[in-house]
Design a protein that fits this description.
Blueprint: H1 10-34, H2 38-47, H3 51-66
């Protein structure tokens, strides 16, 4: 079975890049504000979507409930 090369358009790559950068910047500033390793969260936000944002929101919510 021969697989066809399916290439993403430039617009798709641009959208994916914008989404990842936006998520990373958002996580970075939020983590810096709450004192939670901003570089780690920003880096994780650049690698994939949406798991780092979901994990951060869950952990942040748990931290607020403990206070």
């Amino acid at each position: 079975m021969a697989q066809k090369n399916k290439k993403l358009s430039k617009g798709a790559w641009l959208s994916i890049s914008a989404l990842l950068v936006t998520q990373a910047v958002s996580l970075f500033f939020s983590a810096r504000k709450s004192g939670r390793n901003p570089w780690v969260w920003g880096g994780a936000g650049l690698l994939q979507f949406p798991l780092p944002a979901i994990a951060y929101l869950i952990l942040e919510r748990q931290a607020k409930q403990k206070k």
